[in-house]
Specification:
Chain lengths: 74, 698
């Protein structure tokens, strides 16, 4: 299984699933849903936080949260 | 009589909701607080047509009706309570054309509350550049609303919005999402238990932790055939609900909203490449901070000097023109110097709010949060602590309130505890007057030495905030997993009107709030300085003249002797003398002691107090700075030398002299423990550093 924190800057993927219990609802509300496209735009120094584009919406999340989100590379 | 229509503006952050509010109300707006809590309440009025006026409420920005902060709870509490006097006749959901999909999530929720709802698609001027096209008719039909395209930058769509508001009764109020499609069994049982209530409202009452007055949670929990689900089950249902809503939105947008990605020239990624660069991003941020502080110091000095000398002249004029007496004295030596102490704040506060509002409006603030998160986490803080820490340079009260969007409790508490170390604008007049007294006006490497000192004090404030957070963080244990979601909005050219209104409103409310305290203290000080117990005060004149009978003094010098003797034996003089032993090791005399005592309620009182103290009994009105420079100790040395100046600056940098901050910390942390800890720690740090500085430098 691959997770969102393994993406390299500029890389695209598709969200497959996430840990329902732990993932904050707010992230889902911002469009982090299975089936949506995700792209890692930038990583801050020391690899955290991550600047993502998910389904046209731009946001930054921390690595620990990204590691809860399962992705599939094209 | 004109009919008042109640309108609520609702929307995600960064959609230009405030621009819409400003376009509708102009300067007919006021900012207050919701009763009992400190969430900012913005309301205003506007005329829709000849017979209808509207009362407009600008609700706090929220991503959804699932509240994760107190600001968001306000929105839900209002929209669920039809008996609330602010309950809207019509809701206006403001969205940004580029983020329409995400913005529509909130729209579907508001719509499901069965309130007439209008959809404003803002920033429509961006459509062409971004290659976006919208089928408005179809979108209206699918969402059961009226869609208004607006561009506040070009003042487009305001008339259409007003017209739509007048005709709000034509808006359908049917819900968009049938909750029973999420979990038929659960929701049909819920509906059966409360057949008269709207299902989505019931669902919000169950899931949201807010106060409801009309629909009570207890009543639902008490219902016998309805079992409250565990948190995990509820959360899963909420996730399902969100997914269902997005399905509806996607279905709708597929036919009505096209983006031509080729046309979207990406300004964002080009600017981001520099502004969040591993090296240049930080260089840019710190250079910007440096520029801001230099300009606050340089630009505001001219109007400040002008205000200072104008008030001095006014006092002089009052003294000369009005018949002498108690009232003239109160006016010239109590009220006017006190008011001057407030008005002198205005230039700096306005500049500071100007910069903060530019940083927020442009979208740059989120980049700073992104850049600083990792670094600040080492100190137990969050990237989002940057906003409180920077707003703390204006005032700690809004800064403590701004910690609400920090999701993690430990990070939030630490931010609250250390924010008062940042240099708030109330410290600024204290610093400015001390710097101009003790730091020479020279250039070091082409940089103004006084400006450099000021910047040093700001850095010191931040450094102490970080250091104390780093020390405190190990005392807090936390089990909650930290989560952190921050939207990275598009870069935008700040709109002059929005920035102007923000600066105006914030400065106004600061000056009136702080002004009340300062004015009250000025009058109190004047009273305590103008009266004293017993003979030494009432017979000061005779006592001093008799003591100097063999000492040939000019009449002028004798007058000064008398005034000083009288002040020393007034109530305030006695109080200042009483604490002198404690503050003498820091290099302060009893007059500074008086200013210290009075500024325990609010630091900004310091300069006003000194102004009042030095004005009492003196006929000529020179600016306060000159009076302080002339002040001598018993041995003939100037009072405000480098050692005392630095010691005072350090004391003000670290001590907790603000009742309002203590009150807000109590409110936000819901306990006296944290404000008292703050007060104790900060006072000790202030005393120790000021003591060390004076002993080393003198």
């Amino acid at each position: 299984m691959q997770f969102l924190d393994s993406l390299e800057p500029g890389e695209h993927a598709t969200i497959v699933d996430f840990e329902t219990e732990k993932l904050p609802l707010k992230l889902i509300e911002m469009g982090c849903l299975p089936g949506n496209k995700v792209c890692l735009l930038h990583r801050a120094p020391f690899n955290c936080p991550l600047y993502l584009e998910i389904d046209g919406c731009h946001m930054a999340i921390r690595r620990e949260v990204a590691s809860l989100i399962e992705i599939e590379r094209p | 009589m004109a009919h008042f229509l109640k309108v609520a503006l609702i929307g995600n952050p960064n959609t230009g909701k405030t621009s819409v509010f400003n376009a509708l109300t102009g300067l007919n707006q006021k900012v207050g607080n919701y009763p009992g809590i400190t969430v900012e309440k913005k309301e205003g009025s506007c005329r829709l047509n000849r017979t209808t006026k509207a009362h407009i409420l600008d609700l706090p920005g929220t991503y959804s009706l699932n509240a994760s902060s107190m600001d968001e709870s306000v929105v839900i509490e209002l929209l669920l309570n039809r008996n609330n006097k602010d309950f809207p006749d019509v809701a206006v959901v403001v969205t940004d054309v580029e983020n329409l999909k995400r913005n529509l999530l909130l729209f579907t929720q508001i719509k499901d509350l069965e309130i007439p709802t209008l959809l404003v698609v803002n920033m429509s001027d961006q459509m062409k550049r971004k290659g976006i096209s919208i089928e408005v008719e179809q979108l209206q039909a699918d969402l059961g609303t009226q869609v208004i395209l607006t561009s506040m930058r070009h003042q487009e769509g305001v008339a259409a919005l007003k017209e739509a508001l007048v005709n709000y009764r034509q808006l359908p109020t049917t819900p968009l999402l049938d909750l029973e499609t999420i979990d038929a069994d659960y929701f049909s049982r819920l509906q059966k238990t409360f057949p008269t209530e709207s299902l989505y409202k019931l669902w919000l009452v169950i899931t949201q932790d807010v106060n409801f007055s009309s629909l009570e949670r207890k009543r639902i929990q008490a219902a016998s055939d309805f079992k409250v689900q565990s948190d995990a089950v509820l959360k899963r249902l909420q996730q399902k609900e969100t997914i269902k809503r997005y399905q509806i939105i996607n279905q709708t947008l597929k036919q009505t909203y096209q983006v031509n990605n080729d046309a979207a020239t990406d300004l964002r990624s080009r600017i981001d490449r520099i502004l969040i660069h591993k090296v240049w991003g930080y260089v840019f941020f710190f250079a910007l901070l440096f520029l801001i502080f230099q300009s606050i110091f340089d630009w505001s000095s001219v109007p400040m000097d002008f205000i200072d000398s104008s008030f001095a002249q006014l006092s002089q004029w009052v003294n000369a023109e009005l018949p002498p007496g108690l009232f003239t004295s109160l006016l010239a030596e109590g009220i006017i110097p006190g008011l001057g102490g407030i008005v002198i704040f205005i230039p700096q506060i306005a500049f500071l709010f100007l910069f903060i509002s530019l940083l927020e409006e442009s979208g740059y603030m989120s980049r700073v949060v992104f850049l600083m998160d990792r670094g600040l986490r080492r100190f137990g803080l969050s990237g989002k602590s940057v906003i409180p820490l920077i707003s703390g340079t204006a005032c700690a009260i809004p800064a403590v309130m701004a910690t609400r969007n920090i999701e993690n409790w430990k990070e939030r508490l630490l931010t609250i505890l250390v924010t008062p170390f940042t240099t708030c604008s109330a410290r600024l007049p204290v610093y400015l007057i001390l710097i101009s007294l003790v730091i020479p006006e020279r250039s070091i490497l082409g940089i103004n030495a006084q400006g450099l000192t000021l910047m040093g004090l700001y850095i010191l404030g931040f450094a102490m905030a970080l250091l104390s957070s780093w020390i405190l963080k190990s005392y807090f244990k936390t089990t909650t997993k930290s989560y952190f979601v921050v939207e990275m909005p598009n870069y935008k050219m700040p709109q002059l009107k929005n920035v102007g209104i923000t600066v105006l409103e914030k400065t106004k409310s600061f000056v009136t709030e702080a002004g009340k305290i300062i004015l009250a203290f000025s009058v109190l000080l004047w009273l305590m300085a103008s009266f004293g117990p017993g003979e030494p005060f009432t017979k000061a004149d005779t006592i001093v003249r008799e003591a100097n009978i063999n000492n040939p003094l000019t009449e002028e010098a004798l007058e000064a002797e008398i005034a000083s003797y009288r002040l020393e034996h007034s109530y305030i003089g006695i109080l200042g003398k009483a604490i002198e032993p404690v503050i003498r090791p820091l290099g302060y005399d009893w007059k500074i002691g008086i200013a210290l005592i009075s500024s325990f309620a609010a630091r900004e009182v310091f300069v006003g107090s000194l102004a009042t103290i030095y004005s009492v009994g003196s006929e000529e009105e020179t600016p306060i700075k000159n009076k302080m420079a002339q002040e001598k100790r018993a041995n003939g040395q100037v009072v405000f030398d480098l050692a005392t100046g630095i010691s005072l600056m350090l004391f003000y940098a670290f001590s907790m002299q603000c009742m309002s901050t203590l009150a807000i910390v109590k409110k936000e942390t819901n306990s006296w423990r944290w404000p008292l800890l703050q007060l104790g720690l900060m006072t000790v740090i202030a005393y120790v550093t000021a003591f060390a500085a004076y002993q080393i430098l003198s």
